[in-house]
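so i finally got all the pieces together for this one. its two components total, 926 residues if u count the protein bits. some of the lines might not be protein, just check the labels. i wanna see the whole assembly predicted at once instead of chain by chain like last time, that was a mess tbh
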Amino acid sequence: MNELLLIVFSPLIAGVIAWVIRIRGVREGIGILGALIPLLGLIKAYPSLDHGIKATITVGGFEIGFLLSHMSWVFSMIAVVVGFSATLGMVTTARDNYEWLFALMSLTGVLGVFLAQDLVTFFISWEIMTFASFMMVFKFNRQASLKYFLLSIIGAYAMLIAIGVIYAKTGSFAFSEISAFFRKDAMMAMLGGQPAFSRFDTALVYLLFLVAFGVKAGMFPLHVWAPDAYSETDQSYTAMFSGVLSKAGVYGFILLYILMYGKLMVSLGQFRGAPLFGYIIAFLGGLTIMVGGVLAALQEDIRKLFAYSSISQLGYILVGLGIGTSLGIEAAIYHAISHALFKGLFFLIVATLIYRTGKTEFKDFGGLAEKMPYTFAMAFIAILSLAGIPPLVGFASKWLIFEAVISQNLPILGGMVFFGSAIGFVYLIRFTYAVWFGQRPSDIENTKDAPLPLAIAMGILGALNVIFGIAPGIVARELNKLFNSQVIGGNIWELDLGFGRYNALLVTIWLVIGLLIAAILYFLGASVRKVPVTDTYQSGNPVTMDYNLTIRRNFFLPLKEAVEFWLRISFDKLYRDVWKSIEDFAETARNYIYNGNVQAYAWYLAIILLILAIMGV
Amino acid sequence: MFRVVINALLILIYATFVGFMFMGIIRKVTARIHRRIGPPIYQPIIDTLKLFGKKENITHGLIYDFGIVFALGATILALMFIPLGNISVLRAYGDLILITFLLEIPMLGIMFAAMSSGNPYAGIGAQRALLTLLAIQVPLGFAIITLAEYYGTFSTYEIVMAQQIHGWSIFHLPLLLAAIAYDIVLQAMFGKEPFDIMIAPGEISLGPMVEFGGKHLGILQVQHAIGLFAETLFFANIFLGGAVITTFSNPILNTLATLVVLLIKQLAVLLLAIFISTIFPRFTIDQAAKFYWKWPTIIAALGAILASL
């Protein structure tokens, strides 16, 4: 059997086996194995990437083809590393074999998306991925899952129409042929000939793909499914759901670029040096950053906070992709990698918290840093990484996006990105404050630290956050291979763009030196005495544990008041209203057309006959 | 290698000393505006020494200590990346975005330490600090964008060198707008009225600082001194032309002249901040957010758009 097929299908097979075998212990082992095989397979395939690995199977007259290129290797690697960590986490948190089946099935789906070499494979894998993730949400919350499913279906069928349009004109499903066709078409249009795709057709295909990939990536205003779907499922699975499945949307946009970059540029023109179609994606990405960030800050549920945060970070990737230079795309892929790493870590932390305490809302947490030191250390890494603190991987990728945006002379987008970095800081501190610090409620007094499988999974992702942060050149070197040119210069420790440099090793060294100096100052002073949390300043009054000293509710009330006007505009509400009127219309149509009156049905027949008579049949 | 260590040490000592003098100047000038004599200019040094001399210190746990150490360590880190004339250690890596981020990190450490104390005043102070940070980030971002777009580079040192040839940044209209916005932002970065909402003495008992005493507060004083030095230095570098003096034949004289010129520029920035802070009362936090998202943002965005044309 071809190794590529093994990589793609081993999670699915393992999932089915785990579903059939209901023995606790064996099922977990098989599940982990199913996620481990693709990881090893991809590492093994790495040396032979340069000539590409292909595999095809024929099903129902269609060629299902897979191709491993540099681009798909990078994305698949994200998928399997985070997927493997998530399955490790699921050893603890999964409640039955149903979850194993669909979690692993969605891993197969997403690997299929990344490795597809034609639109049919791409679409089928896309649907497998959507269906499996829908089933994962469906078990926990019907309402949330249906919302996710409906929007995903709209996206998927928009894609199907677009594929239909492309196939009708090009007569091919293979990416390489379509891409060649569009290149020729763009050339034709530039030389003044009659292109196969008119301006309208191109714009239509673009819009359909925008909807299709935008839904998956959680792009504003199509993001409404994400907060519900991400929160109402097994949180270990969400590490994969948010870390990897959202990258399918990102990969989709990259695919759009691969297929028809030149054609879109020629047909839709430019805006301030950036291609217009890219600018639209980037601008929506900018809005996504802001909306996701502000809403994340105002959440009262730990899962919701990270769901919105996930949306917000996806916005960065869209901004990077949108500006469309090779630097922008590399920055976006870099951020996709780092987002998968730190957001996967975050959701595993959330899974641990929920598993150990059984609570999800901020008002029930507090003071857990002492009880769960390992989990807190991991949370510390993840917080520094997401907030973009050098020398972690989150900073390296954000820095690239900043430089890519600003060097393209796009000031408004730059402002949005800056706002996004501050709001990231804001909602993370809220999480830190409410969960880890302050007074501990008495009912979580006996919380234990993370169970071993979750601890290992967190350790993997945490270590990668640090390693890629200190040596950002490792990733940059891989990304340079995508374009076969030195887009991001420098060595393993340093990123050098020509107009800006970032040396992570020096930052680390000097941070350590700074910390040492500070520590010397600290140890120069007299020794410290530990005091309990109630031994604190409360306007000079004595306090006991009966007082609630930690602000747990509505932490950012002033922010809420400052943006009150904007919060009234809710796309969630809009979609619900639209859906409600569709339902009403269906009800009305049912009442009027199927009205139970036999004579009415006779009249319908008469009317049809009349129409036929007029048409002269 | 040895040279780097000596340089770093000298910069650190110089920055700490000047930073403390700045803190003294703030108190002195404020006093004179109020027609008081005020404390001697070296008063903050005495205060800090007293804090380190406390016989007993309290702690609320590991993060409480680590946050403070982290804040000072990150401030030192930021200082090393900002060009100080021609004697800086890492000026080749002094990227605008990097320094902007590095100047924010100390806040994270202070916040961590403050919140781990579990004090409600610290909590409310942290909330206000974060919202201030969020509010200033927009005009700050636009100001940085203006600079990068105008000069076509992100390197702070190259921007200083460009100003040696083309004149100070504030004499070019887009950059003047950015400088005005950045100066308004500086008021909040220094923690001075009308934007000292995060500390708010008299209103929320010093906010994040409420639980610190003894050596913790002492370290925060040192951090504040270095932070003050770093922030004024960064502003002087990017908007007021920095300084790389080469008129003398003796390198030591050159260095001293550079430091003097930079010091004058830093003092100018600082005095402006003091004058504003002594005559304006404090904003509330929602007023501050709305203010920063309105006028400074419009000014800086205008600058950024002008620079990108």
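The CA atoms of residues 189 and 231 of chain B lie 8 Å apart.
Strands of chain B lie at 57-59.
anyway lmk what u think
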